[in-house]
Amino acid sequence: MAEAFVVTHDVGTTGNKSCIYRISERIDLIDSCLVEYPLYTTPDRGVEQKTDEWWSAICGATKIIMARSGVVPARIKAMTFCAQMQGSVLVDEEGRALRNPMIYLDGRSAEQIARYLFNGLIKIDGKWNARTAIESLRITGGLAATPKDPLWKYHWVKDNEPDLFKRTYKWLDVKDYLILRCTGRYGMTRDSAHLTFLYDTRPGKLGWHRGLCKKFDVNMDHLPPVVDSTDVVGHLLPAPAAQMGLVEGIPIFGGGGDTSLTTIGAGCLDRYDTHVYIGTSGWIISNVDTRMVDIANFIASILGAIPGFYNYTAEQETSGACLKWARDHLALDDIGMYGESQHMVDKTQEYETLFDFMNRVVSETPPGAGNVLFTPWLHGNRSPREDSHARGMFFNLSLDTGKREMIRSVLEGIAFHKRWMLEAMERKIPHRERLRFVGGGAKSDVGCQIMADITGRVIETTEDPQNAGAKGATVACAVGLGLLASFSDAKELIPVKSTYEPRTRYRELYDKNFEIFKKLYERNKALFSILNSRAG
């Protein structure tokens, strides 16, 4: 294989990581840099970010890695993005964002979803208008079933900011906006198009569906062209090239959302290959070759980047975010090293230190965390019980409980939730004895062992698991450049680095605690609603 260097950007919830990869007989990470940006919340459950802060993080991180690596800019052959999904970025005719993007965590559109879905005499699961839901499921394979879905964000702006909405030219997801800013060209990959639930995903019928747009009052002129992850959307313009320290004219590929490209970067390239991801959010995804949906467990398949496959996905709203919470509120005063480093430009070393600490402290704490259980629903629950009112809690604290048990219980709680999702998924897919584990959570040896012990599966990790999304974006570039004939050819380039076997001596303990974990939601569901439901 000819050698090539590419730049990829992993645009996450709390920061952007820019990476340089060399593609040859291996996929080697040359350098990476993480630059954070904030979230902005509103009293009505809105969660926004600023496009200029995304852009500043991307340009700043790219300049840093180009300078540090010594790679000559002319040797960069392509660039693309792996990004958070289900955002809503409205732009005017000049491609300027009309307002702060509403990201996937934004749940303020309760009134909008109620108007379109929570009506009619016959309902599915006691909530959704049966006729509308069945039509959406038939055409798209899914349903915009929560206030956090992009369709309702679109309508929220239409209802609440009508003058601004009138200036809308296109409606984009996060990476699609960033590609527009790089190239001046519009395009949306199929995964993001699917998650509008206006896109026909039936084999042979791929495209925006006029009937659904009419039903949901969406102007089809607002919808961009749909592209594949390996398509060149455009080429890097002179101004952004200068801001990034790159040369103009570099092809910018469509890339994809984090779920699609992390699947590839995990080395899950065959049917039923399944991976666990812990980043800010979390999920379990399996490759399937037919559309699947499990309404009761809030699991569905979406179009991925690999032709012919869908990603059968169960999502956890807050996963690694729980680890960050534990860092800030439990570990901080124990290790006393995060004060000034909060202002670092490159946050990578801070996270290395965090995981080193967690490896040591949690490994010194006995499995089961003294029978303390943590529920990782800090921003609600999604799969297998969709509930925006659910919240986190520590259960069974005693006078003997210390911070170490609490920190370990956070890791165990995240793993319990992954087991809950996995067992629901395997009602429709074959049982998987081996799982790939990627994301920042997979950097922790003890976290990997906990995942193996609690799920009862063999856990496999890869090199740089925290960069699986960026690595998947690199594979998309390699296929787009013709360096690889297909995605499946990348399998040998993403080998297993470490393997963790479940320890049978802890099976009884974890089985018992898992059953209690599941009951904590069912027995507190009504109380969560009383405490956390509010008008608007």
Question: How helix-rich are the residues, as a percent range?
Answer: 25-40%
Task: Write the CATH fold name of the domain at 4-266.
Answer: Nucleotidyltransferase, domain 5
**SS strand fraction:** 15-25%
Largest sheet, in brief, is:
8 strands, mixed
Global geometry: globular
Give the C-alpha Rg: 22 Å
Question: How do you describe this structure in short?
Answer:
The chain is an alpha+beta fold and 536 residues long.
Describe this protein's structure:
With 536 residues, the protein is of the alpha+beta class. It has a domain at 4-266: 2-Layer Sandwich (Nucleotidyltransferase, domain 5). Helix content is 36%, strand content 21%. It has 16 helices and 27 strands. It has an 8-stranded mixed beta sheet with strand order 20-21-22-19-18-25-26-27, sandwiched between helices. A 5-stranded mixed beta sheet has the order 3-2-1-6-17, sandwiched between helices. A two-stranded antiparallel sheet has the order 4-5. β4 and β5 (47-48) form a beta hairpin. The longest helix is centred in the C-terminal third of the chain and has 26 residues, at 507-532. The radius of gyration is 22 Å and the shape is globular. Mean pLDDT is 92; it is low at 335-347.
